[in-house]
Amino acid sequence: MTLTTVSSLIEGGVRVTRSCQWCKDFGEVDLQRIVLEKGTDYPMLDHLPLCTNGDCKGMIRFQAQRGMRSQWLMTPEGQARFQAHSDWLFQANIIERRRQAQRQRRAAFATSGGDTTSSCITAALP
Fold first, then answer.
1. Which pTM value belongs to this model?
2. pLDDT band for position 119 (50/70/90)?
């Protein structure tokens, strides 16, 4: 049985969970609610929405679980999309951390009265 639509997951008695790659939000998916809102033929394969947990920029993956066995509901194309988003998110996080460090150094420089011998100026980036 291929697990591609909501109806095939319900008929197979498969438990589906969701997991965010960034904030690690995890929970069970209410398939009956999806049927009511989207219909029985709604595709779950390669469905990769953005996380809605606050200001998280992560992407949600769905996982079909049958007992101890589990599988991501993704094709190689979906995995490639997910990986591209993960790479982008990693780079965006590095840039944001560097910007924060630069702001802190500038603020310390301004409060030190422009003293260039201050250790905060010579500190290396994390």
1. 0.68
2. low
Vertex 41 angle, CA 40 and 42, to 5°:
95
78 pLDDT band, cuts 50/70/90, is confident
Q: What is the DSSP string of the chain?
A: ----BHHHHHHTT-EEEEEETTT--EEE--HHHHHHHH-TT-B-TT--PBP-STT---BEEEEEEETTEEEES--HHHHHHHHHHHHHHHHHHHHHHHHHHHHHHHHHHHHTTS-TT-HHHHPPP-
